[in-house]
């Protein structure tokens, strides 16, 4: 069992992630009611990448079944390989129960073979010209590990006209550019974009989370990520679909993500 306290850097935790690793993280690593969701998926991803060294992860998709609050094991299955693609499944197991499951797709490193198509980066001033947005640690303990600088005037639960949030983000503990594991953490570091149109806090937990790295990730040189999150649809029963994209300060596309969330009534 490897235990990580509040002062441990995320990079050290990722280094400890391997198939079969047993981890314990204190409550300073929690999001809403348990281990931060993006961090939890990044730990499974790091373990899967170690089982496939030299291959490129093209996509990872997770299902959140229950919150992680106790020590857990990273369980990685044997890979299934086709002619050009390999798949891995992994689970975070707590007290013998699966709390988080994930599947990842890997390929051999490819060569440039055609034009790159990616969404254009939204106009945004540099991070130094954007104000810092502080999330109370008693609300989201993990938030003190990130620096968030919103672009524009829209904030969570501000009653905005559109369900969209745009902000610069970075991990405060190091100046390293994002890799696939860091990107997953940052993709889940903003408040839910649907919260922008609300006036009062509502729980919007993630049920599924899929991250697809972009062409710019391998060449990223800055710790700063520009993230745009937008809710595309919200059904009457509370289920909603959120899409996210991330870019470097220079405009290279780092990746895309999709989250299925559900609004939880407090009644």
Automatic annotation (TrEMBL):
**InterPro entries linked to this entry:** ACOT8-like_C, Acyl-CoA_hotdog, HotDog_dom_sf, TesB_ACOT8-like_N
- Pinpoint the Acyl-CoA thioesterase-like C-terminal domain residues: 127-260
Domain Acyl-CoA thioesterase-like N-terminal HotDog spans what residues?
A: 28-107
Pfam families per UniProt: 4HBT_3, 4HBT_3C
Indicate what this protein is called per its UniProt record. Thioesterase family protein
Q: Which organism is it from?
A: Pseudoxanthomonas winnipegensis
